[in-house]
Design goal:
Elements lengths: L5 E9 L5 E10 L1 E2 L5 E9 L25 E8 L12 E9 L2 E5 L4 E4 L4 E5 L3 E4 L7 E9 L4 E2 L2 E2 L6
Antiparallel strand pairs: 1-2, 3-4, 4-5, 5-11, 6-9, 6-11, 7-8, 7-10, 12-13
Amino acid sequence: MTNAETTRRVVTGHDAGGRAVFRSDERFPLLPIPSGDADFALIWTTASVPVDNNDETDGRERDAALTLKGGSVIRVADLHPGTVSPMHRTSSIDYGIVISGQVELELDDGAKTLLGPGDIVVQRGTMHLWRNPSATETCRVVWVLVEAAPYLHEGEPLEDVHP
């Protein structure tokens, strides 16, 4: 497996004397998601926010869906050429950093914007989908997702819509 097919994760922690140490330095493959339109590598999760840095659980081993109730998730996603995600919404704030390729963000009213390398999107619990407009190039995005209260529309929470 080449470095392009994996992502590297370096995790720090503390030794018995309270000094900083490296806990792990590993590479992980990106694995296909059930829909087949992208490959994901879960990098880390936290069980709560604020985070408990005394929790020695390997965050990669925690069971997480797109988001983690009460916690946070970071993952790498490779969006395959020409693919489109389903329209979806999660009660979270999502920070997406485009590493390579391009991805189009479409909202439920049809509004669209194109994001490229170095662009950052702050996704605030809205209905949306992702489209890789390239016929040949994979788009890599790093996602940090933190649980949030649902958006209230006219006093009522908008429900999550999972793909």
